[in-house]
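User: Before I run my own analysis I want an independent prediction to cross-check against. Here's the chain; please return only the structure tokens and, at the end, one sentence I can use as a sanity check.
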Amino acid sequence: MIDAAAEVTAAARSGERVVAIVVNAASGGLNRDPAAHDAIAHAFEAAGLRPVFVPPDAGDLRQRMRLALAERASAVVVAGGDGSILCAAEVLIGSPVPLGIIPMGTMNVLARDLGLPIGNVAAAAAVIAGGEVRAIDVGQVNGQFFLCGAMLGLPARLARVREAGRHMPALRLWLRLARATLRALARYAPLSVAMTTESGFQRMRVSSLIITPNPLSEASMASLGRTRLDGGMLAVYAFERLNLADALRLFFKAVFGHWQDDPAVTESLVRRVAIAVPRRAVRVMLDGEVQLMRPPLRFRIRPGALRVIVPKRETAETPPPVEA
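Assistant: Structure tokens:
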């Protein structure tokens, strides 16, 4: 196998436009398409780019991302889902090298927020070849980054249900999650939290707590959709003690919109928030991946910390981000 660094150097000297690509074969879309690797290569070549793949035996996903960054290519591209994109972001945050995304996960939350094509490798490659670079905000909690959302309470507990339904159609998966949520409401006690923000101190008992970099849109709670990714604020959504009626009402509002005006939901916009929980460790789901974290949980927003390649706006005069 050709050494990736030597391949990038040789291609750059020949005037080719080079991107370093890391493929997460564990992502849902890639599991369903054994020929995805070849399809990605052909798509980038057709878009006028030279794809250089970091081999899967070069280490775990994070190590491969670091190798991709070290190749000095014009962009680092990740093919995978939200977890894979977060792993790439952890390496690229603060770097001038932009991130290109081939959405091949189950939810593809960030890709949808960015307006990237879903399920179309050729279209994704075309965006990376001729798009523009946009700086987006990144959330951080106790040193860990997140791009879409951090969740405590029921969402973190239901992560196993979501993982088991990874390959289900979206509607079926959400119905399954709704059923599991109703069961969990009857079994698990609300979470006691104490929040400290710029506005003061507050104690509450919540079934769920969601923190997102910038607010969720009114009509897209189910997909964590946001209309703006560079507002420089964290949005904190506290879902107070929910009974069955509350949960059913919120479910239908999440599907049809106008959920933010529900009396069971409290929304706060902050730049920093500290959340204390009377436990040694608490489950926190960051962009779909659950981990145990030791409270207090200290959240902050890092404005414009990640550069990503997005579809070029019609009125934009910015040159294509991938250059020789």
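Sanity check: The chain has eleven helices and 15 strands.
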